[in-house]
Structures are given as structure tokens and as C-alpha cells.
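Continuing the series of single-chain predictions for the mutant panel. This is the parent chain; the variants come on the following pages.
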Amino acid sequence: MSYEDFTKQERVHIDPYGYVHVCHGISIGNTWRKPLSKIIEEYDPYANPILEPLIRGGPVALVEKYNLPHDEAYANACHLCCIARQMLRDRFPEILAPGQMYGEGLNG
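Parent structure:
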């Protein structure tokens, strides 16, 4: 299971780009494009292609759902989740955002 309970979301983080995160790098919307109240009202973790497997079985379920290559061991569940999400970033750029969370656009 994941460390976060995405089915009972009690907090969010809004970054300087307007992305609303339920966990670092997992966005459920952008306040520059839609009011926060609407983003929260429309929140359905079971319809989210990243959150649904995390709810069901944590980062391992995310790796299994998308048949991602993986190592035998990771520092912790968050480490595996981050690596898996990096591999899925091109497929789900609006959810796995912003790119800076995944090292994009950071030039030393």
C-alpha cells in the first residue's frame, strides 16, 4: 500500500506553477487553469491512472500495471514510486507534473 491515503485526501500542496499535488509530483489539476474548489470537487482517485494502482497496491502495483522495468531493491516505497513515475512522465505529463519535479529544465 502507499504511505498516503489517496481515498481520504486531507491535504494538498500547491506549487509555484499552480499544480495541485496530492503527493510530490502527482498533480490533480492546476489552479492557473481551474479554480481549486473545482479541482477538489472533481477529485476521483479511482479514475486517475497513477493513483488507482497506488491505492490498490502501492508502487509495486504501479510497476505491474504498466509493466515497467525495475530493480530488485529500492531504498523505500517512495523511491520505487518516484522511479516508476519518471518512466511514466511522457505518458501522463498533466498528472506527473511539473517537469521540474522530475529533473526537467534544471540546468545545474
